[in-house]
Amino acid sequence: MTEHQELPAAPMAAAQAEVIGSLAAQLRVDSIRCSTQAGSGHPTSSLSAADLMAVLLMRHLRYDWDQPSLATNDHLIFSKGHASPLLYSMYRAVGVVEEDELIHTYRQFGGRLQGHPTPVLPWVDVATGSLGQGLPDAVGVALAGRYLDRLPYQTWVLCGDSELAEGSIWEALDKAAYYKLGNLTAIVDVNRLGQNGPTEIQWDMDRYARRVESFGAYPLVVDGHDISAIDDALARARSRPDQPTVVLAKTIKGKGVPEIEDQNGWHGKALPKDMAERAVAALGGPSDLRITTALPKPGMPAITPDPGAAFNLPRWEVGEEVATRAAFGAAVSALAARPEIVVLDGEVGNSTHAGEFKDAAPERYFEMFIAEQQLIASAIGLSVRGYIAFAASFAAFLISRPHDFIRMAGVSQASIRLVGTHAGVEIGQDGPSQMALEDIAAMRPVHTSSVLYPADAPSTARLVKTMADTTGISYLRATRGAYPVIYGPDEQFPLGGCKVHHAGPDDVVTLIGAGVTLHECLTAANQLSEVGINARVIDLYSIKPIDADTLRRTCQATGGRIVVAEDHYPEGGIGSAVLEALAGTNTPELHVVLLAVKALPTSGKPQELLDDAGISARHITAAARGLLTT
Which of 2, 128, 255, 598 has a beta carbon 3.0–4.6 Å from 81's, enabling a disulfide? Predict the structure, then answer.
């Protein structure tokens, strides 16, 4: 028997089965009461899973509700977050939510019990409600348990059958099987009905089982209203150390309310008051059953965070040509001295240089292959367990495919670090399918996000270190090509700052760039100097948060004349960030030229593409001279 394998639960006594039945009835009653009082919610989706969750609470979940951050607690994630009435009713049953809060504050302004669960509640790990995300997030939690914490906690996930149409669910099962996550159990509430009618597979349980098995997980088909069968399935799931289990529970939507059982058209609808009263009475009326969940075994994670661990960032000489993606790889490898740092790759580690971390700390490097949704979800799950996770891939794919996972990470107020390389037309010959030209616009609106775009190796290394200690969602944009080192090894790059070059009392125009276009701006400033025009240059390495004060002062000092150059589409990029920062400035007149990629690029050499897009030094020089003649 391995360290994670456990004996099945003892046979259930008749008296305990009776209590579980009473608990399931209470969960149904409370789900109806709170949603009817709120006038909205998803009671039918809660009713179908009540028996499943009653058995889990009474027999299998190991959790100290007074210490939700206890390292050995099991995790329970409602991937079908719309079943929040059931989850909150469970919280009432264990005594952490009182009846008044459940019945009178559910879905109400200012309350904790929101329409879909969020970590404003200490027992909720991640925000859910965007279907197909809870199970992928749970993979990250389970990865931490098996490979980092090395603790025997189980991660339980309640899924809906509708969300099994999401590809992210199957990415999750695939990676869970690949990493042998026997500490992960998905419980699928197969109630046959979705929001707009029957689900794709309905009650074809054999078909579900074949799909689950084909992805390497262990399927268990049960009657989702048979307490004994549920108990046996959950016991068998926990006793499998090297394979994730999927309990496929055939259930009836609206179970317990005969008027609406297995009836289409009741998804997302609260029962009317008269129907709710009849249903509650038939279920035995309101009750105040309080249960005690089994406590987890004592234990401590195998890894202890050490944010003060000594390490040396790599150093480069001014003028040396280094790609910022290479600087990221070197910097994050240096950070491996901190045992809480973890890196996840999207099968491009040899290009992003994330793969270098594998040489420094192989036990903390996880390959997610070409599964960008799972890449982000794993980072989120690892963050639940307190790990500082960096996820890296090509920017075009890191930000686009899993953007909803990033958005939901913001709702969860999770802390993850994203590094997108090969951004902009600068990547050259690979062509437009590989060019991230929307990533800054995608990341700026995300709640808690920081957006960073360093121009050289030292600034990249410093910002990687800053990201490790920054809460929220940090995104670093890195370029493919090698560019000269501008800054010395001891230069500091605080979040929300910028760097000013060529500042003088006679400056008449400001050139703003970041990443590759900073180098073009510096070249343009030299070209302008040759004809007697003094240009001030701003390295806007921190796009969000942005140094609005420096931008405003510089704008005023140079007569409101600004040229912004960015290797990005004009909508929502650096130019938009600059104009937002300057809104309301006291400068009498503002003259701004935005140079951005305004047409679909093609393949070509990087400098050819920068020039064709109108963001090279000669275009910046021309724009600046044009401002001085108007």
Answer: 128
- Residue 346 CA to residue 354 CA, distance in Å, equals 9
Task: Identify the H or E element spanning 566.
Answer: none
Per the structure, the complete domain to which residue 107 belongs is given by 19-282
In a domain, 189, yes or no: yes
Sequence letter at residue 504: G
Strand partners, 367: 345
Structure tokens of 466? 């800053």
240 vs 529: CA distance, rounded Å: 71
Beta bridge partners of 423: 436
| C-alpha 478, offset from chain centre | 20
Secondary structure, 3-state, 445-499: CCCCEEEECCCCHHHHHHHHHHHHCCCCEEEEECCCCEEECCCCCCCCCCCCCCE
pLDDT tens digits, 457-512: 999 999 999 999 999 999 999 999 999 999 999 999 999 999 999 999 999 999 99
Q: Which amino acid is at 179?
A: Y
Cβ contacts of 327 within 8 Å, gap of 6 or more: 314, 316, 454, 456, 457, 458, 460, 461, 464, 478
Domain boundary among 434, 458, 484: 484
Query: If we measure between CA atoms, which residue out of 578, 576, 583, 544 comes closest to residue 562?
Result: 578
- Whether residue 524 contacts residue 535, with contact meaning beta carbons closer than 8 Å, is answered with yes
CATH of the domain at 381: 3.40.50.970
Q: Of the residues 101, 171, 340, 372, which is catalytic?
A: 372
Q: Is 177 helix (H, G, I), strand (E, B) or coil?
A: helix
- Cβ–Cβ under 8 Å, residues 116 and 268: no
- pLDDT for 8 equals 53
- 474, 576: one domain: no
Catalytic residue check, 99 = no
- What does the radius of gyration of the chain's CA atoms come to, in whole angstroms? 28
What is the C-alpha end-to-end distance of the chain, expressed in Å? 81
pLDDT score of 423: 96
The answer for residues whose C-beta is within 8 angstroms of residue 344's C-beta and 6 or more apart is 354, 365, 366, 367, 368, 375, 378, 379, 382, 389, 390, 391, 392
Over pLDDT 70: what percentage of the chain?
98
Residue 341's DSSP bridge partners are 388
In sequence order, what are the beta bridge partners of 186? 157, 246
Query: Do both 342 and 403 map to the same domain?
Result: yes
For residues 536 and 576, the answer to whether their CB atoms sit within 8 Å is no
Domains held by the chain: number: 3
pLDDT tens digits along 106-134: 999 999 999 999 999 999 999 999 999 99
* Cα 363 from Cα 434, distance rounded (Å): 30
From 458, 484, 510, the end of a domain falls on 484
Q: What is the pLDDT of residues 591-620, one digit of tens each?
A: 999 999 999 999 999 999 999 999 999 999
Burial class (CB in 10 A: 0-12, 13-18, 19+), 115: middle
